[in-house]
Amino acid sequence: MPKLTLDELKALRDKAKESIKTRDGKGRAKIIVHMGTCGIASGARNIMNSLLKELEERNITDVIVTTSGCAGLCSHEPMMTVEIPGKPPVKYIDLTEDKVKKIMVEHILGGNIVVDYALAFGSETVY
Questions:
Q1: 5: helix, coil or strand?
Q2: Tens of pLDDT, residues 20-45
Q3: What is the b/e burial string over 53-78, where b = at least 16 CB atoms within 10 angstroms of the residue's CB?
Q4: What is the DSSP letter of 117?
Q5: Which domains are seen in the chain, by residue range?
Q6: What would the pLDDT profile of 59-70 be if each residue is shown by its tens digit?
Q7: Alpha-carbon gap, residue 26 to 4, rounded angstroms
Q8: pLDDT of the residue at 112
Q9: Which of 36, 41, 111, 122 could form a disulfide with 88 if both were Cys (CB 3.0 to 4.6 A apart)?
């Protein structure tokens, strides 16, 4: 995959801002695409593009999409975490564009975790 220029990255950011509207930082779900160096090398850009395309095609405007760096599980990239208010976060691993579509339909829209693609449910507790 060719490198993106700064202008291309800005255009991608602007397009994402237009298609994903956040209301005071709240929404039906928050999706974090892990885009550290290992994630990007494994295809996280394609996952982000696929996710944004799914949201745009379905006219979903109440889902917050953001990125993070490496989650420390490089061998399972590309990854994303889905957070739905009142439910434990779910970390999905080894993603493909088809898996993103299924997660969109079953988890984000349907409320059912796609167990076959999930690595972990919930958060770690720090004491």
A1: coil
A2: 544 445 678 999 999 988 888 899 99
A3: ebbeeeebeebbbeeeeebeeeebbb
A4: G
A5: 22-121 (3.40.30.10)
A6: 988 899 999 888
A7: 30
A8: 94
A9: 122
